[in-house]
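Human: If only I could read backbone structure tokens as easily as an amino acid sequence. Take your time, and here it is.
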Amino acid sequence: MPYVEALSAGVLVGALYALLRVGSPAPPPVALFGLLGMLLGQTLPETW
């Protein structure tokens, strides 16, 4: 269920950014690497 909550929060923040016409705080490649790092950081401790 935490994944659904995280996805919902991301969609909500994305919608707010679109409504307020705010640019992304990070360029898309940097943001994707950040998301990848969060995913790895969340899954690695479970495997060790």
Notes: The helical segments are 2-20, 28-47. The two ends are 22 Å apart (CA to CA). The chain has two helices and no strands. The mean pLDDT is 80.
